[in-house]
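User: My instructor asked us to take a sequence, write out its structure as C-alpha cells, and then describe one feature of it. I'm not sure where to start. Here is the sequence I was given:
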Amino acid sequence: MATATYNEETTDREGAGFAQTCLTPGAGVLYALLHTVLSATASQFMALGSQAGIPGLQLIFLMKCGETLAALLFLPFFRPKLTTEKGRQTLLLVLSTITENAGSVLQFMSFVFLVPGIAFGIIKGSLPLATACIGFLFLKETVGVVDCFGIVLNVAGVVLVAYGLIIENTSSTQRLTASILLPLAATFGRAPSLVISRSLIGVQKVSVLTVLFYANMTGAVVLLGLTYLFETPIWAMSAQTVGNVVGLCLCGCGAQFATNLSLKTEKAGITATIRTFTIPLAVLLDYIVLSELPSPLKSGGVVLIMFGTGVVAVYTWWRHRKETLHKNLMQSLDFDK
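Assistant: Let's start with the prediction itself. The C-alpha cells for your sequence are:
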C-alpha cells in the first residue's frame, strides 16, 4: 500500500516536473502555433464564403460580431478592468483598435484575390521582419542571431512566392497588383498591431479581454457601415454557407485570443515569426478544400518559410526551457533567498 502511494507521488512529481520544464516554457510558442491552425482554417471558411457569393466586408463584419460576442461572454467570468489608468494606455488602446481592424480587413480581403495559402505566404512571411523592426524601435525588443536567421529565411520565402505570382500570372495586371499589394498592406497593418498589443498586454499588463473587446466592438460597427457603403450584403444564405460563416467566426475568435495570449510572454517579433507556420497549413488546406496545388516555385518559398519558422519556434522553446531549469536549480540551492 505504501509502495503504491509512493509510486503515485513519484508519478505526480514527474508529471509536474515535465509540465514545468517542457510545457510551461513553451506556452507562448504553443499559443502562437494554436493561432496558426485556427487562422489557416478560418482562411478556408473565408474563401468558401466568398465563393458562395457573400461579400468580403460582410464576412469580416460577421466575424467581428462573433468575436465581440465571445468577449462579452467571458467578461462576467474574468471581470477585467475596462478602463485605462493613464493617457498613454488610452492612446495605445485606440491605436490597437485601429491597426487590428485595418490589418484584419486587408488580410481577409486578400483571400478574395488569392488562395489563402499564397496570401498567407506573403503576409505571414513578411510580418516577422516588419514586426521585429517596429518592436525594436518602440519597445527596444531585440532578437538573437538564430531568430534573425529564421526571419531571413521567411523573407526569402516571401520573395519566391511573390516572384512565382508574377511569372505565372494569367489574370489582369490590375488583379495581379491587388494580389501582391493587399497582402503587403495587411502586413503593415498587422505589424504595428502586434507591437502595440505586446506593449499593452505583455508590458503594461492590460487584460487580453479589454483589448479585444474594444477592438472587436469598434470593428463590428465600422464594418457594418462599410459593408452597406461599398457592397450589397446578402443575408439569405444556404445552410452550408451559414456553417462556413459560423466556422469563420469560431476560428477567427480562437486565433485572435491565441495570438494575444502568446504576446503576454513572447516578444512581438518572435510571435510573428512562429505564426508563419500558418502558411504550410493553409497550402495543405488549399489542396484538400479548394483543390489548389501550388507551383514548384511557390512550394519552394513555402518550404523556406516553414524551415525558418521551425528554427525560431524550437530555439525559443529551448531558450525558455533553459531559463526555467536554471531558475529551478537556483531555487533548489536556496540561491533565491
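For the description part of your assignment, you could build on this observation: The chain has one domain: 28-324. Try explaining in your own words what that tells you about the chain.
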